[in-house]
Amino acid sequence: MIAEVRRSRGLRILIWIGLWSAAYGGRDLAGLPVLIWMLPPACEPARQFLIVSFSYLIIVPATLAFMELTIGALRRVLQVLLITGITIALAGISWFLISGSQNTFLVYNQWLAVAILVTLIVGSSVPKWSKRYLVLSQHRVLTIGALIFSLEALWVNIARPLNYKVPHCYDTIGFAVLLLSFAYTALEMIISNERRLLSIENELAIARDLQFSILPGAGPKIPSLSIAAVYEPMTAVAGDFYEFLPIDEHRVGFLIADVNGHGVPAALVASMIKVAGQTVNSCASDPAEVLKRLGNILNHNLHRQLVSAAYLWIDTEAGLARYSAAGHPPLLYWRSLDGAVHQIESNGLLFGMDLESDYPVREIPLAPGDRFLLYTDGVTEPENDAGEQFGDRRLEQVIRDNRSRTLSELAEQLLAEIRAWKKPAMGLHDDITLIAIDIVDAPVPGFDRVTFQPAAVLLP
Question: What is d(CA 271, CA 202) in angstroms, rounded to the nearest whole number?
Fold first, then answer.
């Protein structure tokens, strides 16, 4: 019951122990004279069926419980024995339903139990094998309990077919010893896993703080620009990254990148991009050269991972923007002159392809009121219940519908639209990062970093 409530993969062993002990106890309960006396005669076939079913099937949850404690070749041997046990059980129960004979296949079931017990004894008793094939390094309680039960069960399973009388209480005592040792070992394994997970969660929390620390804590001081950024990891740490490359009060570069995958590996690559980005300040005005240098640095260190990136250079004094990308979603450009949203695509190869690539540059004249949006594919890929992605069109529509709002309001509205679109029971499919830039007439101090939490804005 605990395992079912917790819904944890690591607690499945409790389910198998519970079913195993229930089958053992159910078989004995169904054979009690007082139960036979209480039940009406019409229930006798059902009682006999339960006894036969428990007798044949008890080996299945027992083997599954053993498998939760084993790895490697020993686990594969138990898998073969499990399939054999299921086959014998189906054959024995089916034959009982056809002929009424209870014990036709029981001898095979008993010898299979002997094989499983011998496997368990050898696997847990030989130090070299126990360290290699058992989940727990310390398993003395399980070894002692398994040896006591196995010796008793071997004696019973060999003696009874040879018509030697063995008191039934020996079965009960042996099983109780094994069950208690198994339960102790299972709880030890669960507690160990919980401690390990807690340690990992603490380390991930530190990693999350460190990753946020490599992101810009304040925006570049460009009087004619208003800037807002959104950064929301799918997991504790993310593979998205963004950076500002300010040169002076009129010129600044915006870099955004998306590492294929999630979690710690992607976050480590994102940290590499941070380091690599510090080497391109000298060519910040040339998007093609920025991406080429980043690619040269990253391609030798990505180890089969791929990274998309986009770079936007804005020179408010010259009234010009330059844009280039490496396999990244297009730059969205809301032009104040015609009130239309334009997709600016200028892509070379993804980083990590180990191929030479040119990165074509698009030049865009600037005018007051223009708005730019750089984003990763986590913005457009969330799916609704019908499996439809949020998509580029809806993103463009949000930009059009909110053209009069501030960038912070636009970011909050876009995130609200994504939350409303995606499946209610599911979290993010991918990390979400976007940078929004407005070209303004008057100086606009400050920088907003907006998180995914509703109406939460981190001021500089």
Answer: 20
